[in-house]
């Protein structure tokens, strides 16, 4: 066996181009015999005589236009002309009209482009003066510089609709199951989101199942939260929804409906807002269960540890409208408050029209409300000088409302909008009312000062103003009870309404202030007052967070009060986290489990004098840091000693979590399981929880390969994986981590890019080579095959080039096959070499073998 001391194909080319250099203005000649000791043959290498030359052909390259990534494309390359500056590889790309249109060039503005047939190469520098092309062969990056005058007047980041991918036919299922087994009660919650994609159409259904056991009684309920069909209307830059959904909340409060909706899609426009979802904050005095309801439906349920918490992963498609938050403490006490969800000031770019049309029946999850038919239409128009005008109407048999408003961009002073709504209502007792509501919204980011007024709003309503939601109530006054009961058998009060107390004033605020090296402070809250009632529903949270040398600390104060429900409480909380790396003196290293562990401490005190102190440790484990854990021990003035243990594993096929909490009176074991299932033409793929829009990765045979920037995501045994939460109408980079590939796996290109439409499952395919990596020494007529000979495996089509002493490197080989080796023209300049490799070659990093070519 001859050991590898020669060079592979790229090394051979580098050696040729390094030795050769032009000695005069005339064409120079390099004798290929210099590459050997004079006894071996050399193949025809004439194509490398002109310096850094690469073979013409189609290459997959990353295309950048004016320093903006366009995509990864297969582009034909030709040999560069002799009178042009030699680019990398000596190649020039074949630029077509279609490529220029994709890059946003105003093709009709250049007469020279109109004469070029489709698919033919364009002399870019001649056709568009001022343009430049730079090709880096080593990194396979093509940089194209185009003058601004040649471009369409579109915003940066805009992607033409003909590049949007509607995705593949697929069946989707998202599931989330959580359970709790306690000393006195048990509860289980299952949320299912299923769907079917075909072309541009998306069929979706969301439902939930709850099962509670308490004080010897049991309640089980299935709720169909919504079923709907939706699709994109690309020419209108709009979305169509038919079925159960929610209205927009730009002009009127968001309400649920069953019917049809056609509305402008902001995400189809460049540099526009991608939507807004509220962050639900709170303070748990003990390990607690957080339940979030919207329109009577439970849309979120999870378990949190003691201390301040923030829930920022609510699904924006189901989180329009106010959120009713319940924090069920481990000691059976509860906190209840409402988090308002309203938009920032209603501003649109100049010339932009945004519309929203709805027709259907009012729909909520509350049995005490009717389902009146209604129609709603809103229009927002962007005008010159930073002004925006908007308005709309709501029409029903017992309700009529008209709204008008305006917004203004104040530059350094932020942005604001002001609108007024006039409504006529007929309530459950057939009484008729008429009134107005005035709303003010303001937002400002003082970047130089680190101040962000994310949302500041106030609404004032007269005594006769009611909303469509008010008109839907069957009774003038009633308590709404939950399914759970306290330990004394008294049902929990979930909400209360009294139409005699129509809304008067509503203030909402969300402000954060950066203090530089000294941390940051934030204030979030809302306050609702009513006519005819002195009490108010109030929720505020003020917090400060900072850190030094890896030690983080925070102080939070929360005050909430629900009118006529109770549960008023003030809570102050302190949290400290100290990394274990602080004690090692070696700095922070993410590759060490010790340095990814923290000592934690928290303390809280309520207005009633209840105090709670918790200490513990937390951290992450595994190579991808996708297993988190926490252990705490503490004391509560109400329940005595307490403790908890919990872990969460973000695995390939889903997320798993488990926890145990105990106190003197209560023991609880809770768990959470969530994930996704995707059915497609190539089979079924399990995944982590799916987003609204997802990417199916197809790399046949490449099992166990991690996906870059996706914690815990890797291909299954067939080479498939799902990358959740793709960004719609934007380039999404999908990359395989080649360091996690097995020794028998090679891939042509590990990076792909996709542009999905809303709700799509798009496919990112990768060409894989599954087989043996081998360095073969091939002899022909008792001599090594000529240096530079072209090699092709007859079954798989794998190609390579012969190096010194007939050594050939190939990947993706089958255990047996045949090589076709050619070093010139004619039958006398080629041979065939059958080979057979041992079974153990599949587990070896590289296999060495000598074979004969006849």
Share of helical residues: under 10%
- The whole-angstrom Rg is 33 Å
How does the overall form come out from the CA principal axes?
Answer: globular
Structural class: mainly beta
Overall pLDDT score: 81
Number of strands: 53
What's the structural blueprint in terms of helices and strands?
Layout: H1 9-19, E1 57-65, E2 68-79, E3 91-93, H2 97-102, H3 111-114, H4 124-127, E4 132-136, E5 141-145, E6 170-182, E7 185-198, E8 201-214, E9 217-233, E10 238-246, E11 256-264, E12 280-284, E13 288-294, E14 297-304, E15 307-311, E16 323-328, E17 334-339, E18 353-362, E19 373-382, E20 387-396, E21 399-409, E22 415-426, E23 432-446, E24 451-461, H5 468-471, E25 477-485, E26 491-498, E27 503-514, E28 520-530, E29 533-548, E30 551-561, E31 569-579, H6 581-584, E32 597-606, E33 611-621, E34 627-636, E35 640-651, E36 654-663, E37 667-680, E38 683-687, E39 694-698, E40 720-723, E41 732-735, E42 745-747, E43 751-754, E44 761-765, E45 768-770, E46 772-780, E47 783-784, E48 790-793, E49 799-801, E50 807-813, E51 816-822, E52 830-836, E53 847-852
Parallel strand pairs: 1-5, 39-44, 46-53
Antiparallel strand pairs: 1-2, 2-3, 4-5, 6-7, 6-37, 7-8, 8-9, 9-10, 10-11, 11-18, 12-15, 13-14, 13-16, 16-17, 18-19, 19-20, 20-21, 21-22, 22-23, 23-24, 24-27, 25-26, 27-28, 28-29, 29-30, 30-31, 31-32, 32-33, 33-34, 34-35, 35-36, 36-37, 37-38, 39-40, 41-43, 42-45, 46-47, 46-50, 48-49, 48-51, ...
Protein name: Fimbrial biogenesis usher protein
Domain PapC-like C-terminal: 775-839
Membrane topology: Multi-pass membrane protein
């Amino acid at each position: 066996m001859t050991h590898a001391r020669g060079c592979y194909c790229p090394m051979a080319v580098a050696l040729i181009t390094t030795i050769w250099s032009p000695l005069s203005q005339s064409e120079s000649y390099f004798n290929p015999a210099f590459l050997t000791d004079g006894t071996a043959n050399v193949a025809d290498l004439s194509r490398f005589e002109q310096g850094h030359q690469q073979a013409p052909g189609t290459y997959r390259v990353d295309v950048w236009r004016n320093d903006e990534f366009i995509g990864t494309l297969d582009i034909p390359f030709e040999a560069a002309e002799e009178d042009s500056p030699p680019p990398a590889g000596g190649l020039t790309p074949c630029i077509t009209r279609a490529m220029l249109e994709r890059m946003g060039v105003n093709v009709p503005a250049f007469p020279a482009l109109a004469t070029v047939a489709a698919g033919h190469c364009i002399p870019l520098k001649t056709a568009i003066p001022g343009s430049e092309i730079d090709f880096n062969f080593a990194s396979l990056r093509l940089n194209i510089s185009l003058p601004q005058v040649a471009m369409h007047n579109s915003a940066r980041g805009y992607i033409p609709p003909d590049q949007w991918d509607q995705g593949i036919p697929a069946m989707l299922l998202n599931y989330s199951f959580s359970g709790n087994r306690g000393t006195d009660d048990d509860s289980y919650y299952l949320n299912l989101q299923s769907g079917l994609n075909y072309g541009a159409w998306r069929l979706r259904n969301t439902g939930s199942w709850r099962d509670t056991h308490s004080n010897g009684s049991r309640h089980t309920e299935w709720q169909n939260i919504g079923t709907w069909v939706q699709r994109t209307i690309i020419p209108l830059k709009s979305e169509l929804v038919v079925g159960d959904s929610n209205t927009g909340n730009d002009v009127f409060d968001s309400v649920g409906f069953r019917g049809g909706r056609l509305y402008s899609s902001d995400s189809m426009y460049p540099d526009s807002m991608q939507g807004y979802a509220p962050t639900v904050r709170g303070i748990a005095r003990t390990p607690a269960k957080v339940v979030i309801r919207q329109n009577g439906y439970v849309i979120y349920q999870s378990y949190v540890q003691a201390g301040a918490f923030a829930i920022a992963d609510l699904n924006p498609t189901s989180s329009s409208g106010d959120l009713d938050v319940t924090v069920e403490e481990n000691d059976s006490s509860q906190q209840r408050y409402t988090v308002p969800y309203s938009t920032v000031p209603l501003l649109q770019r100049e010339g932009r029209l945004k519309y929203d049309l709805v027709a259907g029946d009012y729909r909520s999850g509350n049995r005490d409300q009717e389902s009146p038919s209604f129609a709603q239409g809103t229009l927002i128009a962007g005008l010159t000088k930073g002004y925006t005008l908007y308005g709309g109407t709501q029409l029903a048999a017992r309700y009529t409302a008209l709204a008008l408003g305006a917004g203004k961009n104040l530059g350094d002073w932020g942005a604001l909008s002001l609108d007024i709504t006039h409504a006529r209502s007929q309530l459950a007792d057939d009484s008729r009312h008429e009134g107005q509501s005035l709303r003010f919204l303001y937002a400002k980011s003082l970047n130089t000062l680190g101040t962000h007024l994310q949302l500041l709003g106030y609404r004032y309503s007269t005594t006769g103003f009611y909303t469509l939601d008010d008109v839907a109530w069957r009774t003038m006054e009633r308590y709404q009870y939950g399914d759970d009961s306290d330990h004394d058998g008294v049902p929990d009060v979930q909400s209360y309404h009294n139409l005699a107390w129509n809304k008067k004033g509503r203030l909402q605020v969300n402000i954060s202030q950066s203090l530089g090296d000294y941390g940051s402070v934030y204030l979030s809250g809302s306050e609702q007052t009513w006519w005819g009632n002195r009490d108010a529903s109030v929720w505020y949270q003020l917090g400060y967070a900072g850190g030094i040398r890896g030690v983080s600390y925070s102080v939070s104060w929360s005050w909430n009060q629900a009118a006529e429900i109770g549960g008023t409480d003030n809570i102050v909380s302190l949290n400290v986290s100290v990394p274990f790396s602080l004690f090692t003196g070696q700095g922070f290293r993410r590759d060490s489990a010790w340095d990814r562990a923290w000592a934690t401490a928290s303390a809280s005190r309520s207005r009633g004098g209840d105090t709670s102190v918790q200490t513990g440790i937390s951290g992450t484990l595994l190579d991808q840091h996708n297993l988190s854990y926490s252990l705490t021990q503490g004391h509560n003035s109400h329940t005595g000693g307490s403790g908890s243990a919990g872990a969460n594993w973000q695995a390939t096929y889903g997320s798993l979590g488990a926890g145990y909490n105990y106190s003197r009176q209560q023991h609880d074991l809770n768990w959470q399981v969530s994930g996704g299932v995707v059915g497609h033409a190539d089979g079924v793929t399990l995944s982590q929880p799916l987003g609204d829009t997802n990417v199916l990765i197809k790399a046949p045979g490449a099992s166990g390969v991690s996906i870059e920037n996706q914690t815990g995501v890797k291909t299954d045994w067939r080479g498939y994986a799902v990358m959740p939460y793709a960004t719609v109408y934007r380039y999404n980079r999908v990359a395989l981590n080649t360091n996690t590939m097995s020794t028998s796996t090679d891939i042509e290109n590990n990076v792909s890019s996709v542009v999905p439409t809303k709700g799509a499952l798009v496919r990112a395919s990768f060409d894989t080579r599954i087989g043996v990596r081998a360095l073969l020494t091939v002899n022909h007529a008792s001599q090594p095959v000529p240096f530079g000979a072209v090699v092709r495996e007859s079954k798989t089509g794998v190609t390579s080039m012969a190096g010194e002493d007939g050594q050939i490197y190939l990947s993706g080989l089958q255990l047996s096959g045949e090589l076709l080796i050619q070093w010139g023209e004619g039958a006398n300049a080629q041979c065939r070499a059958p080979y057979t490799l041992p079974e153990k070659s599949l587990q070896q990093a590289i296999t060495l073998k000598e074979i004969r070519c006849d």
